[in-house]
Amino acid sequence: MEIAVYGAGGVGAYYGGRLAEQGHDVTLIARGEHLDALRSDGLTVESVAGDFAVDLPATDDPTAVGEVDLVLFCVKSFDTADAAAALDAMLRPDSAVLSLQNGVDNEDVLADVVGTERVWGGVTYIFSTIKEPGVVEHTGGPAEIVFAEYHDIDDPAPERSALADALLGACEAATGMSADYTEDVHATLWDKFALICAQAGLTATTRHPFGDIRATEETWALYRRVMEEVVAIAHAEGVRFGWDPVTKWLDAMESMDNEENYSSLHYDLTHGKRMELDALHGSAVRHAREHGVDAPAVETIDAILRPQADANES
Q: If we measure between CA atoms, which residue out of 10, 22, 131 comes closest to residue 76?
């Protein structure tokens, strides 16, 4: 497969590198010192699934990549609209753009630019960050991608394409990662959205790692409340789950042994970087108000973090 990783940070570069190990033609799109290191020294990955290094073409100009089968779209959510404007140069009529971003609004933004038929919605479960320019550190998580071809929520899901089958096969053949196809892309997106609003929101507002949140009764109750509110908003949107997301995630997080885990929102907040608050709690608040759903916990987290988010943008 010909693959471009748009936003080759901790997540995108990890998956791009793993697919390149299997012989796929991967180009990384990055910027700054990270791009400089990728160009001069290649990509190094320090992974719990095995370290590796690959020398891949890297650029900051998407229009220089050429046409590809698939774009792994991993830019920060606040860059979605600007980055989407450069996608056409990489896409054939049968190419696809797979969003592995935070939030539930990115796919609609992409669809407005390149057409719904070329957008795939996806989530991933992985702990992977840029340790230093050119070096990605993968510390845990199942490293799984769950995706499907996107569609309007009121329309039937399209049939799975040959390209989707090709990606599934590529991921399953690769070391240190896996993939699955979801039969309900909207439920899958909102399911993870519920978790990330709780995890990101509580680690950022408390400035404490997950283990402290779980060990504190009042804070753990708030963690649950955030998920309950996001699920209620999803229901108002017309999303129907074949499972209980709140119970699913509470059971999973009760047994998680990485007690020192924070979130990318916490990292950005504490390092003066632009935060994805608007794509997370800000988005949840907007959807809640649109449908008249009470979401006091989510609104409170958004209000607490908003001043620092605004300051980090200035």
A: 10
